[in-house]
Every structure is written in structure tokens, then in C-alpha cells.
Design goal:
The complex is a heterodimer. By secondary structure, chain A is an all-alpha fold. Chain A contains 21 helices and two strands. In chain A, a hairpin with a 6-residue loop joins strand 1 and strand 2. Chain B contains seven helices and no strands. Classes of the chains: A mainly alpha, B mainly alpha.
Chain lengths: 497, 171
């Protein structure tokens, strides 16, 4: 057997790693289930915790939080009609009506089983596709990485909710933040204004904690409903019947395929995957009018899609070093804390870490179905914690997490500033995900652009005419032009009719 | 009429971004570096490109908001930057916002004087009371337990050296 696979197995199946993954999963489900808290926030706040853990132990814990958080959103979606996470938005449409009918257990069971199978599908695709993509990615040079960064930034901006321009502005501001500090090639200070702390640039972890943690706290504290909510439905039988399985299995597979593909697109994520999975299931259903009334397919489709997107999101992260969504963007920070750089070189130099992560993903999904089925009633109780009790504790975690990263109180102020920025961005409908991706991709963007230009001796055309980068730029152009051509054609058809 | 349109919230944001972008471009243009033999590849290249990109996006955003404001007159009352400015400053929302921000700033400076444990305990109790989450004695117990757990996890398990207070150096 491949020695790297054996090494990965031995790293992932230590008691410490397994326990941390289980704890992460448990915590992630609770965080995902509480409306207002997200897996993104939990991972952002807990990433500094992993500093003293080994790389794979830390990553397994964070992976458990990630998968648990995405699944946990379905619990409040079903019981309260409030999606715990954006990925559970569509689950509420059929999950809550089914629960109101007295079948809360059935709804939760369908969500759990669909999440499990969807997630396993995504991981299987990751296992098969990623090694080939990693080998291909070794052929990437500076120009190709620059094109990939632009591709990643534009996709997330285009797919972010709200106007396209707001998405691009958010991404641009993220790129600007990265420019603060010493220039990466020559060492010239930029936008530091003589500040010693700014010479090293602004750390990514406090920014992330501010944008997702403190911004959420500020948003929650300034809304009127501060008390928790109570789930009134009783949870009965959880395991789906054979009849339900016969109804949903095709939907689960199809949605898993959609979710994995969407998850693999840089910046897309589970929320978009679940929406597309639900829409597709409704479109090809024999009875689309029943969607929204509490049918099994309406729960299975989005849950399968949003969990399969996790495996998809890991594909660009591990093979190219480009995050698939906001959470994997934060996971890059976790890799960096342990001096690992995700990308094709990680496959070449540390394959045991990659294989350990694969095993970790499989284990986490097994935990999902075990915990989901056995602890549904516990999670249902957990979502009733009042927000005015939770928010101060989360604030303290944010402060301590920001400080712990580099033992600087300056980072606490950075966290606060970005928390306020994140709050106002949300209020004014500027998406935050493009900014995070701008901050993550910014260093890769700048380094590769300048190296590519230096190698080409200033000839800009070489950035666009190398074969792989040319293909990426053409795909990018098509992504922007195709919808406009399609809209124009539809208008022409309407006029002719 | 144009001034009226420009006072809409989104327009103000767009104008601020335009000035910001212009500043970034100006600053980047004057950045000097050793690699001036290839003029383009200077430290100011990427900030300059980002500035130009932001400038274009901000102008487009301003144009869109002005066009939108022409079509939706009803928005005028709720999003005009100048109207109700004072009410917005002293609204409940603003008070909470300023309160939380101020508490974190005060925390940052007090931790140097009183150390992590006392400052965090006072921080939590204050917020619990301000939010009317629980009674004072409950707030004290919850804060004590929370600070204890965080302190143990970070200081003992993760060996993060919290600042010692100048007045109480052993905490």
C-alpha cells in the first residue's frame, strides 16, 4: 500500500485527532443550529486555538466544526423556520411545514441522512479528482496563478448576493488591505505611516474574527429580538422509512453532484449549491407544486447539496491553494498557522497531511450521522440559549482569539476596526465574502503578477497568451458575456413573439 | 436637485470611495522601489491597480445609485443622509453600537493595568447587566466560570501569555 496513505491513516486515527474531530463536530452542530451564529464565525474564532495542536489535529477539529456547522443549520430551519446558516435556507421551505405537521423527527432524520450521503459523495469526488488536478497544477507558473486569482475574485464577486459592483468593491477593498505593510519583493513600507505594528502588515486572523465574529455580535446586539426562541415541536422517530429512501435517493445523488460542482467553484459555497439543488429537484419533479408544503425531496435536495459542496470546496483549496468558499478561505489561515501552504506543493511535499485530511473528512461524516441521529433532542434544546447571554461570551472569545494569534493588543484593535467595517458592510448590503477572498488571494495575486511581469520583462501580453492562463481568461470573459447574450436573445424572442 | 441625490446614503458611500481610490492612486504613484529598471514592476504597481479598479467601481456605483434614486422617490425619506441625522446618532441602535465598541476599547487599555482575569470578569459582568441577560449574582457566576475556562484553555493548555496587570501583576 502507498506509504503516504498509511502515514495519513496513522495521523488521522490517533485518539487525540478522533476526539478533537468529534468535539469539533458537536460544537459545530450547536453553532450552526443557533440562528445568528455560523460555522464561518466558529472557525474564525477557534482557528487560533489550533496553534498549539499538531497540524492534522487542528485541521480535523476545524473540519468537524465546518461539517457540523453546515449540517446544524438544518435543525433550526426545521424546528424554528429560521435557517441556522445560509446553507439551510432552502431546507426551511419544506422542513418546517413537515415539522409543524407533527413530523419533526422525520424532517430531521431526512436532513441528517441526506447531509451524510451528500457529504460522502463530495469527499469521494475530492479523493478521485484532486490528485489529478494537483499534478496538473504543478504546471502552473506565475501567469497562470495570476489568472487563477483573478478568476477566483471575479467569480465570488459575481456570485455574491446583492449588486455585482458591491461585490467588486468588497474584493477591491480586500486587495487593498493586503497592500498595507512591507512590499513582499523589495521590502518598501506601504501605507504604514511610520507605525511599527503596520510594518508587518495586518494579520489575517484578527481581520477574519472581526469581520465574522464582532460584526455578527454588533448585528445581533442592534436588532430588536434579543431573546432566544423556543422550539415547540416534539421530535419523534428520526430514521427515514424505506418508502422515504425510495423517494429521495435519486434526488440526493443529483443534488450531491450539483453541490460538489458548485462547491468546487472558487467562492461559490454551500448556500448557492443548496439553492440550485432545490431548484433542480423542483424543476424535474413530477409534482413541483408540492414543493414548499413539507415533502421529503424538498429537504433531501438542499441538505445533500450543501454538504456535498464541502468536499467540492476542498478541491480548489488543496490542489490550487484557492479557497472554494469563505470557510475554506479561513482554513487557509489554519494551514498557515502550521507553516503549511495548501496547493500542489503540499501534495508533493506533505502528502501524508493530505491523506490524513481525506480520512478526517470521512470520519467527520460518520460522526455527523451518529451525532445527528442520537443527539437531535440535545441540539434542539441548545438553540434556545438567549442571545443576550451568548453575545458577550462570544465577544470575549473574539478578543482573546485575536490576541492569542500573535500576542499583540494591536490585533485586538484590528479585530474591532474590521468588526465595525463588517457591520456597516452588512447594513449597506456589501458582501463580506469577496473581501475575505481579496485578503486571502491578494498576496498570491501580487507576487505572481510581479514575478510574471519581471519574467516577461514588462510585456503584459504574456500574462494573457500563455496556454493555460489564456483558457482561464476566456472562461472568465464567457462567464460575464454569456448571461448578457442569453438575456439579449430572450428579449429578442419576446419581441418577435 | 443633484445635491439632493448625492446626499443619499449609497451616493455618499460612493463619493467617499472615489476620494479614497484617488488617494490610493496618488500614494502608489509616489512609491519608490529598487526595481525601477522595469518601471511597471514597482511596489506601487498593485496598490495603483487596486486604486484604479476601486475608482472605476465607485464611479459605476455612484452612477447606479443616482439612476436608482431617480426611479424610487419613496426611498428619499428613509435613506437621505442628512435628514434625521441627529435621530440616527442617538438611536438605540447607535447607543448599543457605541457601547460595545467603547467596552472593547476600554478592555484593551484596562487589561494592561489590571490583567486578563479581572478585566475579562468586569467586561462580561458589565455586558450581561447592560443587556439585562441575567441578575447580578448570576452574571458574576457565569462570568467567573467563563473567564476561568478561557483562562485555563489559553493560559495553561495553549500557553498563551496573557498581559499581566501593572497594578495586580500576578493575575
Amino acid at each position: 500500500m502507498n506509504p503516504d496513505i498509511l502515514a495519513g491513516f496513522s495521523l488521522a486515527f490517533t485518539p487525540e485527532a478522533l476526539i478533537l474531530c468529534l468535539l469539533g463536530m458537536f460544537f459545530g452542530i450547536i453553532v450552526g443550529a443557533i440562528p445568528g451564529l455560523t460555522a464561518t464565525m466558529a472557525i474564525a474564532i477557534l482557528t487560533p486555538f489550533t496553534f498549539s495542536l499538531s497540524a492534522i489535529n487542528g485541521l480535523m477539529m476545524l473540519t468537524g466544526i465546518y461539517i457540523g456547522g453546515i449540517y446544524g443549520g438544518s435543525i433550526s430551519a426545521v424546528l424554528l423556520n429560521i435557517p441556522g446558516t445560509p446553507s439551510a435556507l432552502m431546507t426551511a421551505l419544506d422542513g418546517n411545514p413537515m415539522a409543524v405537521r407533527g413530523e419533526a423527527g422525520r424532517a430531521l432524520g431526512l436532513a441528517t441522512v441526506s447531509s451524510f450521503f451528500g457529504g460522502m459523495f463530495g469527499v469521494c469526488v475530492l479523493l478521485t479528482v484532486a490528485p489529478f488536478l494537483a499534478r496538473f497544477a504543478l504546471k502552473f507558473g506565475a501567469a497562470e496563478y495570476f489568472a487563477l486569482c483573478c478568476f477566483g475574485l471575479s467569480v465570488v464577486a459575481a456570485l455574491s448576493q446583492g449588486s455585482l459592483v458591491r461585490g467588486f468593491i468588497s474584493a477591491g477593498l480586500g486587495l487593498f488591505v493586503v497592500c498595507i505593510g512591507m512590499d513582499p519583493i523589495i521590502g518598501v513600507p506601504r501605507f504604514t505611516y511610520g507605525s511599527q505594528e503596520l510594518f508587518a502588515g495586518i494579520s489575517y486572523i484578527p481581520i477574519m474574527i472581526g469581520l465574522f465574529g464582532i460584526a455578527e455580535v454588533l448585528t445581533q446586539l442592534t436588532t430588536k429580538e434579543m431573546q432566544g426562541v423556543t422550539a415547540t415541536q416534539k421530535i419523534g422517530r428520526l430514521w427515514p422509512t424505506l418508502k422515504d429512501i425510495k423517494v429521495i435517493w435519486k434526488v440526493v445523488l443529483r443534488s450531491a453532484g450539483i453541490g460538489t460542482f458548485i462547491g468546487a467553484l472558487p467562492g461559490a459555497g454551500g448556500a448557492i449549491g443548496s439553492i440550485l439543488g432545490y431548484n433542480e429537484a423542483k424543476r424535474i419533479s413530477k409534482y413541483p407544486e408540492k414543493f414548499g408544503t413539507g415533502i421529503p425531496e424538498g429537504i433531501a435536495a438542499p441538505e445533500s447539496a450543501n454538504n456535498s459542496a464541502i468536499g467540492g470546496a476542498f478541491i480548489p483549496l488543496l490542489t490550487l491553494g484557492i479557497p472554494g468558499d469563505a470557510i475554506t478561505a479561513i482554513l487557509i489561515g489554519a494551514f498557515m498557522i502550521h507553516n503549511l501552504t495548501p496547493g500542489p506543493l503540499l501534495y508533493r511535499d506533505n502528502p501524508e497531511i493530505i491523506y490524513a485530511l481525506y480520512f478526517g473528512l470521512l470520519v467527520a461524516h460518520l460522526y455527523l450521522i451518529i451525532l445527528g441521529m442520537s443527539c437531535a433532542k440535545v441540539f434542539a434544546k441548545a438553540i434556545t440559549v438567549p442571545k443576550n447571554l451568548l453575545m458577550p461570551i462570544i465577544s470575549l472569545f473574539c478578543i482573546v482569539g485575536s490576541f492569542a494569534y500573535a500576542n499583540r493588543l494591536f490585533d485586538v484593535m484590528v479585530m474591532l476596526i474590521f468588526g465595525v467595517i463588517g457591520y456597516y458592510m452588512r447594513k449597506n448590503q456589501f458582501p463580506i465574502a469577496p473581501m475575505i477572498l481579496g485578503i486571502v488571494l491578494g498576496p498570491i495575486f501580487e507576487l505572481n503578477l510581479r514575478i510574471a511581469l519581471q519574467l516577461a520583462e514588462g510585456d503584459i501580453l504574456q500574462l494573457f497568451t500563455r496556454p493555460i492562463s489564456a483558457v482561464l481568461w476566456i472562461i472568465l470573459l464567457l462567464m460575464f458575456i454569456a448571461p448578457k447574450i442569453k438575456n439579449k436573445s430572450l428579449k429578442d424572442i419576446a419581441v418577435n413573439d | 436637485m443633484l445635491i439632493h441625490k448625492l446626499l443619499k446614503k449609497d451616493s455618499v458611500i460612493a463619493i467617499v470611495l472615489i476620494f479614497f481610490s484617488l488617494y490610493v492612486i496618488y500614494y502608489s504613484y509616489h512609491l519608490k522601489g529598487l526595481a525601477e529598471a522595469i518601471d511597471m514592476v514597482t511596489p506601487g504597481l498593485v496598490p495603483g491597480l487596486v486604486g484604479v479598479f476601486l475608482l472605476i467601481c465607485s464611479i459605476v456605483f455612484l452612477y447606479q445609485t443616482i439612476r436608482q434614486n431617480e426611479n424610487t422617490a419613496k426611498i428619499h425619506k428613509t435613506t437621505n443622509f442628512s435628514s434625521g441625522f441627529l435621530q440616527k446618532i442617538i438611536s438605540t441602535e447607535s447607543i448599543w453600537l457605541i457601547g460595545v465598541i467603547a467596552s472593547i476599547i476600554v478592555y484593551r487599555y484596562l487589561i494592561v493595568l489590571f490583567g486578563f482575569y479581572i478585566t475579562s470578569f468586569v467586561f462580561l459582568v458589565s455586558l450581561f447587566i447592560a443587556l439585562r441577560a441575567v441578575k447580578l449574582w448570576q452574571a458574576a457566576i457565569i462570568s467567573l466560570v467563563t473567564v476561568g475556562i478561557i483562562g485555563y484553555v489559553f493560559a495553561v493548555l495553549l500557553r498563551v501569555p496573557f498581559p499581566h496587570g501593572k497594578f495586580i501583576p500576578y493575575l
